[in-house]
Amino acid sequence: MKKNLMNLTALICIQGSNAVVPLIVFPFALHALGSTAYAELVFSEAIALFVLAIVTYSFDIVGVSNVVRLRCERPDPDLSGLFSAIFYVRLLLFVVAAACALALYRAFTDGSLVNIALWMLIPLSYVFQSTWLYQGLESNAPVAIFSFVSRTACVALVVALIDRPSDKYLLPGIMGSTYFLGGLGAFAYAKYRYQLRLRRVSWKNLRQLIVEGKEMFLGNISVSLSKDMNVIILGTVGVPAHSLAAYSIAEKLIKSFQAIARPLNQLFFPKTIRAIKDELEPSWRVAKAIFRQTLPQLGVLLLVLCLIVACYFVVGKNISSIASFPNVGEIVQFLTIMVPGVFFGVASFMLGSVGLNYLNCRNYFFRVILIVGLVSVSVCYWFAHSIGAMAAAFCYVSAEVLTALLTVRRYGLTTER
Predict the structure, then answer these.
(1) What is this structure's pTM?
(2) Residues 208-247, buried b or exposed e (16+ Cβ, 10 A)?
(3) 88-102 pLDDT, tens per residue?
(4) Domain-wise residue ranges, the chain
(5) Cα(first)–Cα(last) distance of the chain, in Å?
(6) In this structure, are residues 67 and 131 in contact, taking their beta carbons and an 8 Å threshold?
């Protein structure tokens, strides 16, 4: 019980650190830099997020599963082979994806390569961080400490050093370097603590790892299409800088709210698997069993949302720095539209990523999120020309709702026996 509580606390610390940084740093940067400089930064940051989606691949699930399997086979397994293989694959993916991102950025924009190169330190940090290893070993405290220290340093440096538009490249520089040092620390500690060493790995083993997680990886990329692509679309169609900046802040706030759900997802993940362990295919009975594990998560999120809204109307509107924040009305408008999508996203994760993957229906779930992602991108690009950033907000929530509905539909395609 004590170990489970410590791991849950560590997971909350990791997610909380990742959530709080954008919550503080990006609104502060918009206020200090102004809409024009800020819009340039978040456009290149959105490209870096796609590189991050490629780098993480599906090892946060596949890697954890392999560590657990090895520990079941032997009480004290040698994890150096798996550690090396995942590190090499992620490093290769980073080199290829970063090179493509830099080339496309250079070809289609007149922005500085220094800007996007500094953002690339963030996906590079995840190459080294090896969170999957700590989760598989059920020892999340070390990576939580490195994450907390690096994110705290990031916030402190941004607040201390950025105060004018000419400081715009300090933002990716500070975030990239602090994240990278945190990832490097977690990597070094894992090698020392678990006596790991990088060794040669055959192409056959590398290929097996890549193939094993390809559906989940393609699904993650498809999800990025309906979320992270919106800022890039708004930047390419010429949406005014103030609207792009307002949507970017709203998106960061939504992602911070989503981060609250991730420790809950991780806590209820094994409970859900145990609840459906004897099931062989999707059915309404299975959907009800999964939803019983989903409902408490939605309840916690709703309570947190009510507290946030109450604090804003009771306290926030009376604080001069919030009331005078650039584009605050537009940001609140975007948030109002996008918030319901978080609740549908939790349902999609539990019924899809957990339920359908366990029931060997991962191809159906992949097709759903791929189609929804492509439709979302197309619709957003089409309507952004006429209604601007509002198109991105509507597409964001519509994609979450449609994914959830199509996922639920799969449970009704099997006739109850």
Answers:
(1) 0.74
(2) ebbebbebbbebbbbbbbbbbbbbbbbbebebebbbbbbb
(3) 999 999 999 999 999
(4) 1-212, 237-417
(5) 39
(6) no
